[in-house]
């Protein structure tokens, strides 16, 4: 099977329509299971009480916000370097979802911070760098919207996205580099998790749910962008709408 043909927006459009249910349905199921495990199965924290349960939303949202930005920058860079229209469209589709997760992480972090630290907001390194990430997403979306020529808009957005990638490792390592209110990582790639098994299970299930949701919603947005940009969109608009 020639996979290169799917680099064409017109060819990828119907495939995306077929893929959406395969990610949307598992996403809904995983969200339901993850919320149940997180709110009813996971034990109460001995220090924070039940207030800590917001982390089952906050942490996956924060991870997805960072991951989607890196993915957006990669697609934007590919679109810029190789004049790949579908890659540039994918970057545009990823931006709104990434911004939504970043905003969700900031809001839930503020709600978590009030009972834990006594304040909704403190200008510590991780909070501030995450806020900068949201501004980068907004800047990318606004910059593309402000330029009528889609090719120029994609190039300008790619430059901003690639420059902004430096902020992602700053967010991740901020609690190690600076003295902040934010607690260190409870789940480490090369280390043993420091949280109870039901908490870890709820966290990973919610992360999977966010990932499946992201794929589904990005594919939906990508199809809309293809229809908006492609001059011959009417040729395939009726396929798997």
Describe, in short, the structure shown.
The protein has helices at 9-41, 55-82, 85-117, 125-146, 150-164, 167-177, 197-229. The chain is an all-alpha fold.
How would you describe this structure to a colleague?
By secondary structure, the chain is mostly helical. Helix content is 73%, strand content 0%. The protein has helices at 9-41, 55-82, 85-117, 125-146, 150-164, 167-177, 197-229. Helix 3 (85-117) runs antiparallel to helix 4 (125-146).
> Rough shape?
globular
Strand residue percentage: under 5%
> Helical stretch count?
7
**Sheet bearing the most strands, described?**
none
The structural class is mainly alpha
Oligomer: single chain
Write the layout of secondary structure elements.
Layout: H1 9-41, H2 55-82, H3 85-117, H4 125-146, H5 150-164, H6 167-177, H7 197-229
Helix pairs in contact: 1-7, 2-3, 2-5, 2-7, 3-4, 3-7, 4-5, 4-6
Annotation keywords:
single chain
